[in-house]
Amino acid sequence: MKKETLEDLSKITGFSKTTISRVLNGKSKEFRINEETCEQIISVAKELNYRPNLVAQFLRKAEGRTLGIAVPYISNPFFAQLVSTITIEAKKHDYTVMLFDTQEDANIEKKCISAMVEYQVDGIIIAPCSETPDLLEIISKNIPVILMDRYFKDSYLPYVSTNNFKGAYDATRALLNAGHRNILCIRGPESAVTTQERAKGCRQAIVDFGEPCKLKIHGNEFSIQNGYTETKVALMKPNMPTAIFTMSTNILLGTIKAINEQGLKIPDDISVISFDNSVYLDYLNPAITRVAQPTENMALAAVKMMINCLKEGKQLQSKIFMAPTLIAKDSIKIINSYTAHHEQAKD
Q: CA-to-CA distance for 289 and 171, rounded, in angstroms?
């Protein structure tokens, strides 16, 4: 005999699985579910002899307090560090963490959010990849939501992020000050606000510098493959860039691979600067100049905001930008003014 599931009850009654779960778990008053709805759900459940998944129910109760965390690609060192810090800090407050990898896919993200709601997490911290805040704004009416790293400009949802504009501005300015006038910037997905702000920072640095410069911005992913492909294409052109600014460490790795395959050396033949920080960047040859995000502080701030909301009932309204730091290493070559003008003249 087929065992009826929560999904079966949802199809029969027309109510969401979340609503059904709340009614059957005695939380109808807490979530203001009317009596008629409760009676209908309970009646159908009895008729079908519905028995909830006791193991899942036990785990929910046993876990007690849980935070749902969702990021695009946990393999990305930046997000991995964020999640690690959040997990450690949440544990100090007796919260466990349920982690989801959305793989930079809005449809997968929706399923991850639904799973968090179904599991009845106490709060959600998410680096969104969707283009609109609609779903998260709806969820936030019942479950506290904090955006991390990425955010929506026209939404009331609280967030903790880096000043990406300034980070990219400083990186581009560092290349310009070193004499570079032919620069390639390899970006992440265009829909991500972090990408948009970094691209704006690059362009503004060129404008403020006030000298003729060639800036190209290409790419569409925070991935190794994206960095490799865009660099490979650029290096095959007769007037290749003198410097490359990669918008993440994953992109950087692809860029380095392409440069090595062409038999070129950093910074003698081409200079490189990257967004994001990682300890292994100091062990590359040469060590890479980069813009470091305050990753740990971002994670700590997000957890503190969430705990204050859950334990003290404080409203989530903060929109926090944290300052990045330029870490100067050995991957940028200083070229003289003659070389810079010579490169520009060839354009």
A: 9
Q: Give the DSSP H or E segment for 125.
A: strand 123-126
- Residue 61: is it exposed, middle or buried by C-beta count within 10 angstroms (0-12/13-18/19+)? exposed
- Which alpha helices (H) appear in 64-163, and where do they start and end? 77-92, 106-119, 134-139
Q: What is the arithmetic mean of pLDDT over 72-101?
A: 94
Q: What is the residue type of 85? A: T
Q: How many angstroms separate the CA atoms of 296 and 83, rounded?
A: 10
Contact 227, 258 (CB under 8 A): yes
Whole-angstrom distance, CA of residue 269 vs CA of residue 243: 9
Contacts by residues 311-315 (CB-CB < 8 Å, ≥ 24 positions apart) = 311/93
Amino acid 121 reads V
Using an 8 Å Cβ cutoff, are 287 and 70 in contact? no
Q: Which helix (H) or strand (E) holds 173?
A: helix 164-177
pLDDT in tens, 121-156: 999 999 999 999 999 999 999 899 999 999 999 999
CA 156 – CA 72 distance, rounded (Å): 22
Strand residue runs (E) in 139-297: 145-148, 159-162, 182-186, 214-218, 243-246, 271-275, 289-292
Predicted model pTM: 0.79
Query: Per 3-state DSSP, what percentage of the chain is helix, strand, and coil (rounded to 5)?
Result: 45, 15, 35
